[in-house]
């Protein structure tokens, strides 16, 4: 039997009585647009809250949906906000909040993926999560598999549409062995999962996954590899090659500059050419060039 939606009614709720149930960070530009829209045309859609009682017996409300609108009202100095009040349990309120954020799919990728993970941790299977969020069962199953293996880089690539989910699962199944990963790429290519730009993006993700790890570091420093004599030699050789390349580039730039300076000297020695430049208002040179063309440093 399909569960009936909770009954609700519209009320003006004091903002200081509302607590945020499932807070998330927001893009500053998007938030500014929300504030501007509310200031210009008012609140088009009320927030959703559920009533509760605090330890002292006072009435309060838990926010289910509409944190951006609530914060916008606060920034505009409002003390009350229109809200749909629904009477649901703590668990249902939490699930409604997560499902709303996931279904809108406008938050940061990791937040949306974390929402699916929280639904799983609440005991919901792939079918229930798909029903609550509007996502396909196969998609939810694939995401849960990648979450289980800590494949954040692959997850983000899938969510942003850079690589197909099936290809990400194939790569994840190869583990960290380069040979197995290349075999997985070949398999994905031959099966048609990875072609064109998807193949290019997959290689980029695999390279980052190999060098930076499967997860996205958020404030946690990566482990510094042990220093050995061979690693020091390799680092030294790379630095030598880098400096040699810089010297070559500098010499090339200097040669081109000398060529330009010498060419300008010959051209400016031609009275007809200088008269033409004056007629066009181009008789001056950049200081850096003029100091080399004319030893006295004149720019005219």
Protein described:
The structure is a single chain. The protein is of the alpha/beta class and 300 residues long. A five-stranded mixed sheet has the order 1-5-3-4-2. The chain has 13 helices and five strands. The chain is flat and about 95 Å long. The chain has three domains: 7-107, Conserved hypothetical protein from pyrococcus furiosus pfu- 392566-001, ParB domain; 136-217, no CATH class; 237-293. The chain is 58% helix and 10% strand. A hairpin with a 5-residue loop joins strand 3 and strand 4. It starts with 7 loop residues before the first strand and ends in a 7-residue tail after the last helix. The chain has helices at 28-41, 67-75, 90-104, 109-121, 126-133, 137-148, 152-159, 165-173, 178-190, 197-212, 229-268, 271-279, 287-293; strands spanning 8-14, 18-20, 47-53, 59-65, 80-86. Helix 1 crosses helix 2, helix 5 packs across helix 6 (137-148) and helix 11 crosses helix 13 (287-293). Residues 11-102 form the ParB-like N-terminal domain. Pfam families: ParB_N, RepB.
